[in-house]
Write a structure and sequence with these properties.
heterotrimer; A alpha+beta; B alpha/beta; C mainly alpha; B: alpha/beta; Flavocytochrome C3, Chain A, domain 1; Methane Monooxygenase Hydroxylase, Chain G, domain 1; 21 strands; disordered N terminus; C: 3 helical TM bundles of succinate and fumarate reductases; flat
């Protein structure tokens, strides 16, 4: 089965143009095509200058996020057949600077991620000879959801808070902080406090909740941030009530 | 982003930010804090293809298991082409590597008592595959990536494409690379370079591999005179989704899934893989039997079934059915959720209610850059680990769940050797680095970046290469088809000389990147086809219909493809046998 | 160097998507809660003195005040609803390795809210 559609694609070629434009590509598509298949078809058969990122085409590498008809999507998981509009508009992810065409600059995320110490901070180091840290399936379940983030940037693109104030740490980074805070092997919550429980951190989030809606991996960053707010608020309250046991 | 410097230099430069590369970088940064380490990759590390691995990583953990059993399974699985000293290193270090990942936070699936769970896998005698549901590679890669962030000493060059190795005074002294964002060609000097660039499944038309797997690192080494070893051994995975080639993990079978032909028969029983047990039998699935046989045998059985007309016909090619319905929704969601997610999304079939159509698909390259067990190549200063390397633990057929183990064990070992080498040599001169970048830029301007009229296109040559390899160097090969493929590749190499790019921008020129990748693909395609033509026997994944038997007298040897003028030169070297003399591969109820 | 393009959000970004609009409404309805807090402060301040309390009482009986109360009630109920909808995000309860359904938590909170409100109304009307 093949059908015809038009892709209206955002073009920005900084070497030649100062303003972005839209370019229309009309093409036949198969029923099982995702938007990424159409973009690859364009690049191979129509216009080899179109630039975009992609790799695994199975929804796990996180490269191919774009705005499809104004919504942030992984284009390898977004089927053309699901759009009944005459044309489908493809733009680079919102809120990020555009390097070229559909390629965004995600330096900001890469700089913020290490700041929340997204690695295991155990209470004390255990030698390998002593085997693994025990962790029950229930304990795994407590953080597992927040460990599923593929860093695709869709949540940043959906977050107006980030759009208005790029100093906001943002959904994915904070969800990863929650992932480690909730891990029974981890004892780094206090170490992460300076970045996470900061004005630009969880307290900047006004809970629009759209990050969770657009997350292709069901990570629920909005939930992670609200949980962090509760746990850091309780921690603060404990330090006020029992200053000595708070440990700092 | 890297600060602009007159010259970029590191003691150790790792090329590739997947599992092997990141493991190597951590080994340097953690154990040798005074050593400067760079990681250069054409994609951000978390985009690397390790992320797509699903089923798990093998390491002996249960009391009833033994290192010798793991070694024997691996060696028999390799059809005795693996180097047994390398296999012993693999199995001896595997468990510590898995525990190390656990200590770094990897969310391994657990038993109710809190210990790590293990599952059976194809060709393995016992349960020894550690897993994180069926997103093991994803969790492994992100755990490693997040752990690297702990080390300020690790300097990353994200989205830089390495175009050549800088070789001077008989040793590798760095790389030339394009910063894809700016289009600028720069040199990065290094005392040791570790290639961890993954495989090149994209040289075939139908593969589980992501677009980035184009054999770049193999080609870099090949062009620098380092041989590519055992390139004729290409693994077809028996269960890919028709159309896309997306992988349905072997874990689907290790949890009890079965393969059925269009007569409803569990056809693997007709291919020397034992007798099927009833699905309700507590012993199902039995290890090293039926659906838990090795991948080469299962993929070959698929082709035979197709020839006999016992496969289903579909719009995206013939297929058989993988049935996991008897596991039930709860088990499927708990143990292999991604199988369900992928099947529902990409082919609209919910495996809770219907069998999944599957077909053979190119998955992995057993061959690669010839290294010793420390990861060293024949070029001083150049090391390699992971799928791009051939150490060789996989021989003629890799067992599922050994590759994630391999990238960790040999990634870490290559780092040790690289640090050791770096302590004995000095950094390259700025003059060498500057002239290397300049001459590499001139080379590109004289070839890919020249601007004269219409010529060949990347996509045209690429799809012809893919067709040629599938036609001639697929699951079954013979002299005539291989000859044809070799000559087609020669033609394609000539056409590549006439390639003209439409995109003349410097900024994020993906057409230039794909053109450079295509150059690498032609190199490894050539090595695969010529190595396959020269090996006149059948072993593991290399099945010659004109030479159907294994020939230990003639070919208990690794093939070595050297780039030369015209066709590559194929040499051989002996397989290292320590304790397991070559024997017959026996699967099934024995 | 490359010239990257930044795309600042337009002022009317919150009109472009229903979710963003609902979010802005949630934020704006908090002004209703604020307004009622002012009313109560006024009541407290005027309680000390009979004259000013009668002014306050007269205001309360005016039709303007009744309309104001109705509007504030509607806006506050909307605002309360958004908070109850948020509760499952904060209160994550586990039964073994399975998460208690968010609907159950939101439902329980709704019931609790209705019971407390009922009790307050009963107290006042008594």
């Amino acid at each position: 089965m093949s059908d015809r559609t038009v892709l209206d694609v955002y073009r920005y070629l900084p070497d030649n143009e100062s303003e972005p434009t839209f370019q229309s590509y009309e093409l036949d598509y198969q029923d099982n095509w995702v938007v990424l298949d159409a973009l690859n078809h364009i690049k191979a058969e129509i216009d080899s200058t179109l630039s975009f990122r992609w790799s695994c085409r199975m929804g796990v590498c996180g490269s191919c996020g774009m705005m499809v008809n104004g919504e942030p999507k992984l284009t390898c998981e977004t089927f053309i057949r699901d759009y009944d509009t005459q044309t489908i508009t493809i733009e680079p992810l919102s809120h990020f600077p555009v390097i070229r065409d559909l390629v965004i600059n995600m330096d900001d995320f890469m700089e913020k991620l290490p700041r929340v110490s997204p690695w295991l901070i155990p209470d004390e180091d255990k030698p390998l000879e002593d085997g693994e840290y025990l962790q029950t399936p229930a304990q795994v379940a407590h953080y597992k959801r927040f460990s599923m983030c593929i860093n695709c940037m869709l949540c940043y693109s959906a977050c107006p808070v980030y759009g208005l104030d790029p100093s906001f740490t943002g959904p994915a980074v904070l969800a990863l902080a929650a992932r480690y805070n909730l891990d029974s092997r981890d004892d780094g919550m206090k170490e992460r406090a300076a970045e996470v429980s900061a004005h630009e951190g969880i307290w900047e989030c006004t809970y629009v909740g759209e990050c969770t809606q657009v997350c292709p991996k069901d990570v629920d960053p909005a939930g992670a941030i609200q949980m962090l707010k509760l746990s850091y608020a309780l921690d603060w309250a404990r330090s006020v009530v029992m200053p000595r046991s708070s440990g700092s | 982003m890297v600060e602009k410097m007159d010259s970029l230099q590191h003691d150790v430069l790792v090329v590739g930010g997947g599992g092997a590369g990141l493991r190597a970088a951590i080994a340097v940064a953690r154990d040798h804090p005074d050593t400067s380490v760079g990681v250069i990759s054409k994609v951000y590390p978390m985009r690397s293809h390790t992320v797509s691995a699903e089923g798990g990583a093998a390491a002996v953990i249960s009391p009833s298991d033994s290192l010798d059993d793991h070694a024997y399974d691996t060696i028999s699985g390799s059809d005795w082409l693996a180097d047994q000293d390398a296999v012993e290193i693999l199995v001896e270090n595997a468990t510590d590597e898995m525990l190390q990942l656990e200590h770094w936070g990897c969310p391994w699936s657990r038993d109710p008592d809190g210990h790590v769970s293990v599952r059976p896998f194809g060709g393995m005698k016992l349960e020894r595959t550690w897993y994180a549901a069926d997103k093991t590679g994803f969790h492994l890669l992100h755990t490693l990536f997040q752990t690297t962030l702990k080390y300020d000493a690790i300097i990353r060059y994200d989205e830089w494409f390495v175009t050549s190795l800088i070789v001077a005074d008989g040793r590798c002294q760095g790389v030339t690379a394009i910063d894809i964002r700016t289009g600028e060609m720069l040199s990065i000097g290094a005392k040791s370079v570790v290639l961890c660039t993954g495989g090149g499944g994209r040289v075939y038309p139908f593969t589980t591999n992501g677009s980035i797997k184009t054999g770049d690192g193999m080609s870099l080494a090949y062009r620098a005179g380092v041989p590519l070893k055992d390139m004729e051994f290409v693994q077809y995975h028996p269960t890919g989704l028709p159309g896309t080639g997306i992988l349905i993990t072997e874990a689907a079978r290790s949890e009890g899934g079965v393969l059925v032909n269009n007569e409803g028969r569990r056809y693997l029983q007709d291919y020397g893989l034992g007798q099927p047990l009833d699905l309700k039998d507590p012993d199902h699935p039995r290890k090293r039997t039926m659906e838990l046989g090795p991948r080469d045998r299962l993929s070959q059985a698929f082709v035979k079934e197709r020839e006999a007309g016992r496969t289903f016909e579909g719009a995206d090619g013939d297929y058989v059915e993988l049935d996991i319905r008897h596991l039930g929704e709860r088990e499927i969601d708990r143990k292999i959720p991604m199988v369900r997610e992928l099947a529902v999304r990409y082919i609209g079939i919910d495996p809770v209610h219907d069998p999944i159509p599957v077909r053979t698909v190119v998955h992995y390259m057993m061959g690669g850059i010839d290294t010793d067990t420390r990861g060293a190549t024949s070029l001083p200063g150049l090391f390699a680990a992971g799928e791009c390397a051939c150490v060789s633990v996989n021989g003629a057929n890799r067992l599922g769940s050994n590759s994630l183990t391999e990238i960790l064990v040999f990634g870490a070992r290559a780092a040790v050797a690289a640090v050791d080498h770096a302590s004995r040599v000095s950094l390259p001169s700025n003059q060498l680095l500057e002239s290397s970048a300049r001459s590499e830029q001139s080379r590109l301007e004289a070839t890919l970046l020249r601007k004269n009229g219409a010529g060949e296109t990347v996509s045209g040559i690429r799809s012809d290469l893919q067709e040629a390899l599938e036609e001639g160097a697929g699951i079954f090969r013979d002299e005539a088809t291989l000859q044809r493929t070799c000559s087609t590749i020669t033609d394609l190499q000539e056409r590549y000389e006439k390639l003209v790019l439409t995109d003349t921008s410097r900024t994020f020129n993906t057409e230039l990147v794909t053109a450079l990748e295509l150059g690498a693909m032609l190199d490894i395609g050539e090595a695969i086809a010529h190595s396959a033509l020269a090996r006149t026997e059948s072993r593991g994944s290399h099945q010659r219909t004109d030479h159907p038997d294994r020939d230990d007298a003639g070919f208990l040897k690794h093939s070595l493809a050297y780039q030369s003028e015209g066709n590559p030169t194929i040499g051989y070297k002996d397989v290292t046998i320590t304790r397991w003399p070559p024997g017959e591969r026996v699967y099934g109820n024995v | 160097m490359t010239r990257e393009l930044t795309r600042p959000l337009p002022w009317n970004w919150w009109l472009k998507k229903a979710v963003y609009f609902q979010f802005m409404m949630r934020e704006l309805t908090s002004l209703a809660v604020f307004a009622y807090a002012l009313l109560i402060i006024w009541a407290l301040l005027s309680a000390a003195d009979a004259g000013s309390f009668s002014t306050f009482y007269t205001f309360l009986s005016s039709s303007l005040s009744v309309w104001l109360h109705l509007v504030i009630l509607v806006l506050s109920l909307y605002h309360t609803g958004t908070w109850i909808a948020l509760t499952p995000k904060v209160m994550v309860l586990w039964r073994g390795d399975e998460r208690v359904d968010p609907g159950v938590i939101a439902g329980a909170n709704s019931i609790l809210f209705l019971m407390i409100s009922g009790a307050v109304i009963w107290l006042v009307l008594m």
